[in-house]
Each structure stands twice: as structure tokens, then as C-alpha cells.
Write a structure and sequence with these properties.
Blueprint: H1 2-29, H2 33-65, H3 72-119, H4 124-127, H5 132-174, H6 176-183, H7 185-223, H8 225-230, H9 234-262, H10 264-284, H11 292-334, E1 352-359, E2 368-375, E3 380-385, H12 391-398, E4 406-411, E5 414-415, H13 421-427, E6 428-431, H14 442-447, H15 454-463, H16 467-472, H17 490-503, E7 508-512, H18 520-533, E8 538-542, E9 554-559, E10 562-567, H19 569-573, H20 579-590
Parallel strand pairs: 3-8, 3-9, 6-7, 7-8
Antiparallel strand pairs: 1-2, 1-4, 4-5, 9-10
Length: about 600
């Protein structure tokens, strides 16, 4: 009973994958209909011209060669017809191949851009659970398999089907009874293909999943190489990778076994059987010597039927992989991007209000509890609290990375949902705790594709105190920072990130423990830069080092998702045995 249920589930899964693959292919090739129809038309004409050659050969054998009727003009006409038909078919083959290959390449290019564009707009909640290596595999490997589905599978199958149809029509005109014998080949092919799908589909899906897992493990190991080596974990990680790699090898071996048994060998056997039956049937009939041309033409047409069928079955291995890949890509594209605000509001002053805000990453665990907070425009607010108190979560909600379960966030009295992404990101800047740098120049890292002038970039760098550092590099602002800014220290990378945020001239500047990686001397430079912005920009700073927010207009102390204390530094220090006072004194003691 369990085996039957598993088989039914597997069949349903295959049906779903096929539907997803068809949906994906249709959407990607939608703008290419005219090219697709032209290529298909040329393919049909080429197949008909190719089917003409055995028919002309039959005329030559039966009407001229066997009767010894060597009429030169007629023979020359037949030979010229074969030559012209072959030449024209070759030209049309070239035209259809370039046209259909162009359709495939443009469709996959469009699909890859669509997938990448979709991924970078997914909400942060998706990336909380996503594995980087698997996402990279879907954007690169899976879309490449979809390209193979276009180029190597669909067009080969289309070509083969048209060639087979033309050959069957020609055989019908020659002798419909012999054609029926050849027609018996098709049910056998259907059975072979059905059996192959049942055998190979689970192995193909498993191999694809394990390939993504291999990519994920490699990406994870490279990203954490320093920790991996420092922990002496190279051997353990190698064993884990070897186990995954062996499972991938086993899945691929099962798939290859299905290919070896059911594709080319089975079709070659059927070809031999059909040829034997046709020749035997022809020999059993009463025929004249003039029908030898029919036999020759039939033998030629059988080859033209069997070879395309072999090509079709050989593509099923690639088809299985491509269908699984297309289904995985389509599943990724189905991931909801969440609400896409398209309002016309702009961040003008930078006043922020949190009203009755409630949020939790999981439905059974609430991080923020009915939080209310008003931050006037141009003010500097610091947010502190123990680990897990909700500090970073509050900034993530303000940045629209997540949607609160209840309550509202306003900027200048306008709900966040009424700001378009472009207007919102232009008005709000972020300096994260762990700075992210592109493998590009210092200029590109500050500009981030915004098309800023050199003077704007330098002004932001000076405000962040990183201008002199950049000028000291060998190529100044054109110096490549290396992958993830490997050429810079943690503090220097943080200064670049601050310059990037300031370059956008935001009305609201969010600092998520932005000085945690900076030494005391550099911190003083950043403090001066922030002081220059005081009153001009609304600043909200999450601080672990409380000295960085000592001069804030107001400090908010979070405790288990609630506002436990609020006030200036002096006011909070006056609270006897308060949370802020304890945190501050503890840091002073540690310093």
C-alpha cells in the first residue's frame, strides 16, 4: 500500500514538474512567437525536401535503372532534383537552426535576468532560510539546463517529429501496407519512454538536489575558510562533502543505467526487427522487378524514421534534468516578493513614528510588543538594550525588510506602504554592523550605481573620514577593494560603508552598531561626522558601545521588546539601578 502511494505521489510530482516547465518555457519564449513560427516553417519545408530524395531514387531505380531505359534528359532531371532538393534543404536547415537557436538563447537570457531580478527583490524573510549556494545554482546551473531544454531537447524533438512525419507520408504514398508495419514501431517507443521516465525521474531529481547541496557546501566552506581552518575542521568537512558527492555519484549512476538499457540499445533492436519484418513481408508478396525501388525507398525511409526516434529518446535524459531544473526555477519565481508599494510620497523631513508595533519572526514568538515611539525630524536617537531585546528588528521593520503583524510605521506622517521603493531607499540610508563591499573600486563601492559625480563621492568620503585613506591607495578611488573588501581592515570597510550611506544624502540615517569595528581614534572621526549631520538628518543609532550615543537627543532602552527606559544620557544615569546605568557602568569598568 505504501509503495502504491509513493508511486502515485511520484507521478503527481512529475506532472507538476512538467506543468511548471511548460509554464516557464511559454513565459520566457512569449516575445519570440514570430521567430519561432518562421523557424518551424523552414524546418517543415526542409524535412519535406529531404524526404523527396528516396522518392526520386525509387523513380530512378524502377523506371530507368532496372528496365535499362537510360533516357539521359530524364535521368539528369532526377539527379538535378535530388541535388537541388538537398541544397535547398541544407540552406533551410541553416536558417531554421540559427533562427531557433536565437530564440533559445534570447529566451534563456531573458529568463536568467528575470530570475536574478526576482531574487534580489525577495523579502529578507526569504533569505533568512535560503542557502546561498543553492540560490546561485538555480540562477546559473538550472537556467543553463533550461537552455539545453530549448536548444538540445525541444528543437531536436521538433525536428525529429517533422522528419518522421514526412517519412511516414512518403511511405504511405509508396505502400500503405508496409507503412503499417513501420507504424508498429511507435507504440514500442512510447512504452520505452514511459518505462524510462518511471525509472530515471527520481534519480534525476535527486542528482539535481545533491548538485545544489554540493554547491552550497563549497560556497559555505569558502566563505568560512578562516574559521574552518582555525577550528581544524578541514577533515570533517571533507568527509561530509565526500558523503554528499558519493550520493550524487550513486544517483547519476542509476540515471546512466536507465540510459544504457532503455535508450539507444532498445531502439537499435527495434530498428533491426522492423527492417527484418519489412524485408520478409516484401519477399512474401508477389512482386515484379519494378518494385525493387519501393524496397530501396522503404529501407531509406525506415532509417529516416528510426534515426529521429533514436535522437528523441536520447534527449529524454537531458529532458528529465531540464524539466526538474525548470520546475526548480519556476518554484523560485513563485516566491512572493511581498507588497510592492508604488505611491508617490517622498521622504521630506525625516520624522519617524512607530505606533502599536508588534512583530515576531515566528507566529509563536513575539519580539516587539505594542511598541510606540516618536522620533522628530533632525533628532539623534540612540537605541540600546541587551542581546535579543529587539534593537535590530526595529531597524529591519523601518527598512521594510519585514512587515509587522500589527501596528504602523510612518515617515513624516505617511505610512511606509505609500512610499515607492525608489523614493524610500533614496530617503533612508543604512550603515550595517557588518559592512558589505563589492569586488570593485572604492568609487564604485561608494556610488553603488547611482551615477554620482566625483565631487559628491569625495564629499561623502571626507564626511566619513575615509578620503585620505582612499587617496593613499595605489590607484586612489579606482583601487580595487578585492572580494568583500579583503584589502581593508574591518574599521576601514566600515568607513567606506558610512561614506556610501552619506553619499545618497538621506533624510534618515540608520546606524546598526556602525562603530563596533572601529578603533577609538577612528570613532572620534565618525563622531565628528555625525555631529555635523546633527539637526540636518534624522539619525537612529543602535549602539553596543554606549559612548557613541552619549550625546544623543534621546536614548531608548529596549528590554524584551518593550521600551523600558528613555531619556538623555544624564537622565538615564540618574535612574537608580536602571538598565542603562548598569550597562554604561559595566562598559566603563571593562574599558
Amino acid at each position: 500500500m505504501n509503495v502504491v502511494m509513493q508511486d502515485n505521489l511520484r507521478v503527481e510530482s512529475l506532472k507538476t514538474e512538467r506543468r511548471d516547465a511548460i509554464t516557464l518555457l511559454r513565459s520566457a519564449a512569449a516575445p519570440e512567437h514570430s521567430h519561432l513560427w518562421k523557424g518551424t516553417f523552414w524546418l517543415v519545408v526542409a524535412a519535406l525536401l529531404e524526404a523527396l530524395s528516396p522518392f526520386l531514387s525509387k523513380l530512378f531505380i524502377d523506371n530507368y535503372l532496372l528496365p535499362r531505359h537510360l533516357a539521359v534528359p530524364e535521368i539528369v532531371g532526377i539527379l538535378a532534383g535530388c541535388l537541388v532538393a538537398g541544397y535547398a534543404a541544407g540552406i533551410l536547415r541553416y536558417l531554421q537552426l540559427t533562427r531557433l537557436a536565437g530564440v533559445a538563447m534570447r529566451s534563456v537570457q531573458r529568463l536568467r535576468e528575470q530570475v536574478y531580478g526576482h531574487v534580489i527583490r525577495l523579502p529578507m524573510a526569504f533569505f533568512d532560510k535560503a542557502i546561498t549556494g543553492q540560490l546561485v545554482s538555480r540562477v546559473t546551473n538550472d537556467t543553463e539546463s533550461v537552455k539545453a531544454l530549448y536548444v538540445q531537447v525541444l528543437f531536436v524533438m521538433l525536428d525529429s517529429c517533422i522528419v518522421v512525419t514526412g517519412a511516414m507520408l512518403a511511405m504511405t504514398l509508396l505502400d500503405w501496407r508496409l507503412m503499417l508495419i513501420v507504424l508498429a514501431l511507435f507504440p514500442a517507443v512510447v512504452v520505452i519512454v514511459w518505462w524510462y521516465q518511471r525509472w530515471s525521474a527520481p534519480s534525476v531529481a535527486q542528482a539535481r538536489e545533491l548538485r545544489s547541496e554540493i554547491n552550497a557546501q563549497v560556497a559555505e566552506s569558502i566563505a568560512g575558510m578562516s574559521v574552518l581552518q582555525a577550528s581544524n575542521a578541514a577533515g570533517r568537512f571533507s568527509k561530509k562533502f565526500a558523503a554528499t558527492n558519493h550520493a550524487h555519484y550513486t544517483a547519476r549512476l542509476s540515471e546512466l543505467s536507465a540510459n544504457a538499457w532503455l535508450l539507444r540499445p532498445a531502439l537499435d533492436l527495434l530498428n533491426a526487427l522492423i527492417l527484418v519484418v519489412v524485408i520478409y513481408s516484401f519477399g512474401e508478396r508477389q512482386f515484379s522487378a519494378l518494385e525493387i525501388g519501393v524496397l530501396y525507398a522503404f529501407v531509406s525511409y525506415i532509417a529516416r524514421v528510426v534515426d529521429p526516434l533514436i535522437q528523441i529518446t536520447l534527449q529524454f535524459s537531458q529532458l528529465q534534468q531540464a524539466v526538474v531544473a525548470a520546475a526548480r526555477v519556476n518554484t523560485l519565481l513563485k516566491e512572493s516578493q511581498g507588497p510592492q508599494p508604488d505611491g508617490e510620497a517622498r521622504v521630506q523631513q525625516g520624522a519617524v513614528r512607530f505606533a502599536n508595533l508588534r512583530f515576531g519572526y515566528n507566529s509563536d514568538q513575539t519580539i516587539l510588543h505594542d511598541l510606540n515611539l516618536d522620533i522628530p525630524a533632525g533628532k539623534f536617537y540612540g537605541i540600546v538594550g541587551h542581546t535579543g531585546s529587539g534593537k535590530s528588528t526595529l531597524l529591519s521593520l523601518l527598512l521594510r525588510f519585514y512587515t509587522p503583524q500589527a501596528g504602523e510605521i510612518d515617515i513624516d506622517g505617511v505610512p511606509l506602504t505609500r512610499f515607492s521603493d525608489e523614493a524610500f531607499r533614496a530617503g533612508v540610508g543604512l550603515v550595517p554592523q557588518d559592512p558589505f563591499l563589492l569586488a570593485a573600486s572604492a568609487r564604485e563601492n561608494i556610488d553603488m550605481g547611482r551615477g554620482l559625480s566625483q565631487s559628491d563621492i569625495e564629499t561623502a568620503a571626507k564626511a566619513a573620514g575615509v578620503h585620505e585613506l582612499i587617496l593613499s591607495l595605489e590607484n586612489g578611488y579606482d583601487t580595487d577593494m578585492g572580494e568583500s573588501g579583503t584589502r581593508l581592515s574591518s574599521g576601514q570597510k566600515q568607513l567606506i560603508a558610512i561614506a556610501r550611506a552619506l553619499a545618497g544624502k538621506p533624510r534618515i540615517l540608520l546606524l546598526d552598531e556602525a562603530t563596533s569595528h572601529i578603533d577609538s581614534e577612528t570613532e572620534q572621526v565618525v563622531q565628528k561626522a555625525l555631529e555635523a549631520l546633527h539637526g540636518k538628518v534624522t539619525m537612529i543609532s543602535i549602539a553596543h558601545r554606549l559612548s557613541t550615543i552619549r550625546d544623543a537627543d534621546k536614548i531608548i532602552v529596549l528590554n524584551h521588546g518593550h521600551i523600558a527606559e528613555s531619556g538623555s544620557h544624564d537622565e538615564l544615569m540618574a535612574i537608580g539601578n536602571g538598565i542603562y546605568q548598569r550597562l554604561y557602568l559595566l562598559q566603563q569598568l571593562q574599558d
